[in-house]
Design a protein that fits this description.
Layout: H1 6-22, H2 25-31, H3 36-50, E1 55-57, E2 62-64, H4 66-93, E3 98-104, H5 106-113, H6 117-123, E4 127-133, E5 147-151, E6 159-167, E7 169-174, H7 175-180, E8 197-198, E9 206-211, E10 214-219, E11 225-226, H8 229-237, E12 243-246, H9 251-256, E13 259-262, E14 267-268, E15 271-278, H10 285-299
Parallel strand pairs: 3-4, 3-5, 8-11
Antiparallel strand pairs: 1-2, 5-15, 6-15, 7-12, 7-13, 9-10, 9-14
Helix pairs in contact: 1-3, 1-4, 2-3
């Protein structure tokens, strides 16, 4: 049985934890920018050191053995202690450090996070950012995400949640579309229009507006639907119809008049924007740094405050 020293154990323990959380050697290899055989060898070396099998392997799945589940629980506490020790030193130095995996919605990340990263990275030269942009549900633990930006209410009790802004939503269409079709005067007029439906909304094609006399709900339809905000944005710009979308998606186009805001007396209800991260006893300095930075940036942005 080959024995490892304590320092040699940290990397394979991290790898083992991520393999359990992702259920995949390949996924962890991609995270670590290495190969699947390298990950497999790390796990085999750890099993050799412990003298027990930690994972059962089949052609379809990986799962921890009984010993593996026990070791996983202890391994989490070990890695938490290591992270806290690193954080204590970091606080003494006053410098966040390490790789920060940040998840954002696609359009929001492209238009409002990426442009703000140069200043953040200049302020924190020992931090590197791995940006994951997706409108789909991101499992922070399974995908190894440090912090995610989410729009809407967050009800997961396993997450630490901090509101960092509000997202104003608007009803929009291009001038080219409106030259072909009359502009709606009230939400009911949307029944006569091609509406672009964002399918990830829980309400689907049922749009609710806040009118002078209270909420107004209308069912809409159209020939184009999409599951990500980038496609909805491009659909609007392509003249495919009317959409309800966060105002931040069309900052320049609204200013130039290429995209027009409709139904100004019936604005959709704004949504809260949160930074969320896994509920752990120790929060790394890099996470605190990016959350504080984005909260400060958005507080000064009229589109998100």
């Amino acid at each position: 049985m080959k024995r490892m020293n304590t320092l040699d154990l940290i990397a394979p323990i991290r790898t083992f934890v991520r393999v359990v959380e992702t259920g995949s050697f390949t996924a962890v290899a991609a995270e670590q920018n290495t190969t699947q055989p390298t990950i497999s060898r790390q796990i085999a070396g750890l099993e050799d050191h412990l003298g027990t099998r930690l994972l059962t392997r089949t052609t379809r799945a990986l799962a921890p053995t009984d010993d593996g589940r026990t070791f996983y629980d202890h391994a989490l506490r070990v890695l938490e202690a290591v992270a806290e020790a690193e954080g204590v030193v970091g606080r003494r130095r006053g410098r966040p450090s390490g790789l920060l995996r940040l998840a954002t919605p696609v359009v929001f990340g492209r238009l409002h996070v990426v442009p703000r990263l140069p200043a953040f990275l200049a302020r924190h030269p020992e931090v590197a950012v791995d940006l994951i942009m997706s409108d789909g549900f991101v499992d922070l633990v399974e995908q190894g995400i440090d912090v995610a930006i989410r729009v809407g209410e967050v009800t997961d009790p396993g997450l630490i949640v901090r509101r960092i802004g509000m997202v104003r939503r608007v009803t929009v269409a291009t001038s080219a579309y409106l030259r072909r079709r009359h502009a709606p005067a009230c939400p009911a007029d949307l029944a006569d229009h091609d509406c672009i439906v964002y399918t990830r909304l829980a309400t689907g094609n049922r749009w609710t507006f806040e009118g002078p006399k209270g909420p107004v709900t209308v069912d809409v339809a159209g020939r184009f639907r999409a599951d990500n905000s980038e496609a909805v944005r491009d659909g609007v710009l392509g003249g495919l119809g009317i959409a309800v979308i966060p105002a931040f998606a069309f900052t320049d186009e609204i200013a130039t008049g290429a995209v027009q805001v409709l139904l100004k007396e019936f604005e959709p209800r704004p949504l809260p924007m949160h930074a969320v991260h896994p509920s752990r006893r120790f929060v790394p300095m890099k996470v605190r740094a990016i959350v504080d930075y984005l909260a400060d940036e958005f507080a000064r942005d009229p589109l998100m405050s």
